[in-house]
Amino acid sequence: MKQLETSTFNHVYLSSLDASRLASDDISDYWRKLGLTDEISQQVELCVVEMVNNAFIHAYDSQEGLPIELSCDLDEQKQQLHVRITDQGSVMTPQQFKQALANEFIEPDPSDDETWTTSGRGFVIVSSLMDRVELSTMDDKNTYLMVKQLDPS
């Protein structure tokens, strides 16, 4: 792991279909500077894309121009990457959040249109790739914390 002058990434994106791509591009550069492996970077990048899309589509009901905050820091002592996605949209109840993380991935079957849905897969992907996922709500902000344990190197 390389030592950076700043160990925190912070940026606010305006909700849109493009926000996840912009966030992904920006934070990927940050991770390269941190010296993360390609495998870890790709896994966490997918999770960022899923969660930023989730904020736009579900929390903001596809309304454009609302803030989605992305922050990331490296806990060097614990060798953990902490990624936070914050929105000010609709809130998931703790039960809905728990259920979303517990859902199983359903492989799309070309002969069964019931399996074609794209909704609900994001949290399944995130929970399978991250070591910990938490939701906290304070005032008007919903923050999803995703933690990835890094291999000591």
From TrEMBL:
The keyword ATP-binding applies. Pfam families: HATPase_c_2 (PF13581). Gene3D superfamilies: Histidine kinase-like ATPase, C-terminal domain. It comes from Vibrio sinensis. GO terms for molecular function: ATP binding; protein serine/threonine kinase activity. This is ATP-binding protein. Residues 20-147 form the Histidine kinase/HSP90-like ATPase domain. It comes from the Bacteria. Keywords: ATP-binding, Kinase, Nucleotide-binding, Serine/threonine-protein kinase, Transferase. PANTHER family: ANTI-SIGMA-F FACTOR RSBW, ANTI-SIGMA-F FACTOR RSBW-RELATED.
